[in-house]
Amino acid sequence: MSTNIYAIIAREILDSRGNPTVETMVVFESGYRGIAAVPAGASIGTYEAVELRDKDDKRYRGMGVLKAVNNVNTVIGPKLRGMDGLNQGVIDTTMIQLDGTPNKAKLGANAILSVSLATAAAASAQQRAPLYNYLNALFNTLLPTPIKRMPTPTLNLINGGKHGAGNLDFQEFHVVPATNKSYHVGLQMGVELDHILNDILVYRNAVHSVGDEGGFAPNLFTNSEAFGLIMDAIKQSPYTFGVDIFLGLDVAASHFKTQGGYRIKDKPQELSPKDFVKYLIELNRQYRLLLLEDPLDEDDWEGWRELTAQIGKDVLVIADDLVATNAARLDQAIAQKACSAVLLKPNQIGTLSEYLQVVAKAKKAGLATIVSHRSAETNDTFIADLGVAVQADYVKFGAPVRGERVAKYNRLLQIEAELFPQ
Fold this sequence. Notes:
With about 425 residues, the protein is an alpha/beta fold. The chain has 13 helices and 15 strands.
């Protein structure tokens, strides 16, 4: 049966924030097909590939993606038709060359990525193999990586920053199960803590809403209060802090960095970069953080180096905006020893092949890896399989509630049952 591409069809669908995004179906001549939908971010780093939006104020308030859809249907599709869908590298390279810009600004990373992922999904279907196995085979050409374990989930219980209700500076407050827990047990722990936290908020009559990633967005005065609430939840659970469960924090510092320094509600005045590093070190002493993501501005290389040198052996200092799943930025981070872990989002770079290359580079450098969703997601579960395929240390899919998040957690439960039956 032929694995050549017969048709590529894109359309506009809605993401979890109610904004349009791109969904693409790739059909092989054999009849096998794959479908992929791309997410979108709210906290978008400067160095990410470009997400193409229509900017037509008369339609979806400028957030439409008909241009990206049209680029798939009239430019990318005709170019790829007849090419072998099993040759992921050639498919992705062809689209990169067709775009011709360094950041995929012409055709749109959302257009290109939808085709890239859908092609892999179709190839997996053609070979009648689970998607994680197919993706693992692709990754093995870059770095031999047998599938031996499930990634550990890091669960976002409180949303702030651009994901919350505007009252917290820091973007995400996480609970992280110990890595010696099986995946389903770790997920159970996160769900139980989420429910206990809800009870605490109700008991305290804390006005709360739900953030973009499903976590609570309570009406608090300082970032420290959010830590206090989660610690209270842990104390009311059967789990021991520092043994069974740990804390993680996504600071997203670029979004409250000013010309004068870092401005947060916990301090009466702006902190200089050096003082903010000291503040983060003290925060870690107080809460023994396991994961610390984007603690500094995406261009504050000196701060990143200093923080990683001081706490990077005990804390995973995670580069998201600093690296933006970009090979050149990752090279710089590795050379400067600016982080001890890297967050990896497919839509930051725009093709599956480039994504796998960045993951392999990070692993070869000894960095921990976290496969991540975006704040505006779809029910597509591709990244769940991807996290297993590359043997990521952690996966970050948001709170254990809301359909677009739960779909991914549930997909990992399915994979766990297949690979590591109890």
